[in-house]
Amino acid sequence: xxxxxxxxxxxxxxxxxxxxxxxxxxxxxxxxxxxxxxxxxxxxxxxxxxxxxxxxxxxxxxxxxxxxxxxxxxxxxxxxxxxxxxxxxxxxxxxxxxxxxxxxxxxxxxxxxxxxxxxxxxxxxxxxxxxxxxxxxxxxxxxxxxxxxx
Length: 150
Description:
Layout: H1 2-29, H2 31-51, H3 56-85, H4 91-120, H5 122-143
Helix pairs in contact: 1-2, 1-3, 2-3, 2-5, 3-4, 4-5
């Protein structure tokens, strides 16, 4: 149980501290590179957790660090990209809509993981989450236009 607590705690700590660096970095190098590469770093975290090449606690901790780094890259850049494209008169509303759908992803993702885990095992729930993240990264890479002038 203690190990699970550590694995669970590492992710938001790395994410939170990492945003101190990646938020300003998104203003310097642009939103798109951080979003795309952050998603790919998250995929690496899913791979490490899902395949447990090391003992489970070590895999969980290392994978959670990568998930935290990736999320720290993605999250402030996504918020900035939404703000960049929204007119000031409706910026707050657009961020609210963005956050609604983003947060619904947690609920839908939890349901999906529970269903997949129940039928195919928890490893597959992690693999499917990583696959969806990978596909999302590819779509952003292909379709997203940078929102700030370089």
